[in-house]
Amino acid sequence: MNLHEFQSKQLLQQYAIPVPHGQLATSVANAVGAANNIPGSAWVVKAQIHAGGRGKAGGVKLVKSIAEVEAAASALLGKTLVTYQNAPDGQIVQQLLVEETLDIRRELYLSMLVDRSLERIVVIASAAGGMDIEEIAQHHPEQILQEVCDPFNGLVDYQARNLAFGLGLANEQIAPFAKLLKGLYQLFCDNDLSLLEINPLVITASGALVALDCKISVDDNALYRHKALAEQRDWSQDDAKEAVAHAAGLNYIALNGNIGCMVNGAGLAMATMDLIKLHGGAPANFLDVGGGATAQTVTKAFKIILADANVKAILVNIFGGIMRCDIIAEGIIAAVREVGIQIPVVVRLEGTNVELGRQMLRDSGLSIISAAGLTDAAQQAVAATKV
Ligand code: ADP
Ligand code: MG
């Protein structure tokens, strides 16, 4: 689960990490009020969406008068902002963060993430912070510094100093930088984060270190023990189909292909996607309808799959273990009748009462392609998209 910048900055403040003075606004009048509350005569109006690259896409506006705050807020609110990170769909701007402007001398990059291959939290830093970090990582990897944290010792002083020296910090910045890093590490562990990125971490004219931007992702599997964080989730930022699926208790992840997958069990769903790829196709989604799928769940799942205009065929791959195949067939038939599907549906059924289930599909009069196994199912689904 991703947090908005303003939510991430609230967390940073709880760990005594300096952030610019700022206030959230949800209307133009709000934004003007926020600017009036923040000392100074220049502000930054920042679109709150779950994607970076806002600066280059016009989502971060530096303004020098209240009239400009008003203009920036009305230009951004309600707009779908497309950045290189969320293209082509973009995300809707419903909230703005109005902040003081800082006199920036340097922009650094700093992040922490879980490196799965190392099974460790890794700190990444670069003197080349700001808006082009992906390019630096690709073309100048030597400018990316890294420290791997031992889970027992945590982030230790010499690692903080290594990074500080690598970043070319001045002597008087080393101690505050180490303190900031330790705060971030604590925040990361306490809240079960999978990513914490500050880009840029700036050095101001007075030599202070301030987190100017912040992106936080919380490990979904740990949300049950972070109720307050879980409540901050903004579903408007997720794929609309994923939000509907979540509400229906379905495990759905949208992908870029054209074969809609409806499968029971996460392992079988992964195997199904692999098979589609193996036979030259591309899955449009991951979808686990769960072990106890009912006719209603199957209908909902069909609707979600069909809401994706890219889907050219549907592959239903169900193993009737807990559920009987005849009940599943009944669900599929009812769903296809109710939803009125115009594209080919390939069904692979296996398990208890499979013969009865297959017979029911044949007798239904619906144009359902019955597959004789996993490979056949994948091949037929791929072929159906190529006609
Ligand atoms: P994004 O990463 O989505 O583009 P950022 O919050 O990093 O958004 O902002 C982009 C750039 O805008 C920053 O690198 C910085 O140069 C400038 N900026 C952002 N907030 C401020 C601020 N409070 N004061 C001065 N400049 C800012
Ligand atoms: Mg940024």
Give your account of this protein's structure.
This protein is α+β, with helices and mostly antiparallel strands. About 35% of the residues lie in helices and about 25% in strands. The chain has three domains: about 1-20 and about 100-235, D-amino Acid Aminotransferase, Chain A, domain 1 (2-Layer Sandwich), CATH 3.30.470; about 20-100, Dna Ligase, domain 1 (2-Layer Sandwich), CATH 3.30.1490.20; about 240-385, Succinyl-CoA synthetase domains (Rossmann fold). The chain is built from 13 helices and 18 strands. Helix 2 (about 30-35) runs antiparallel to helix 3 (about 65-75) and helix 10 packs across helix 11. The chain is elongated, with a radius of gyration of 25 Å.
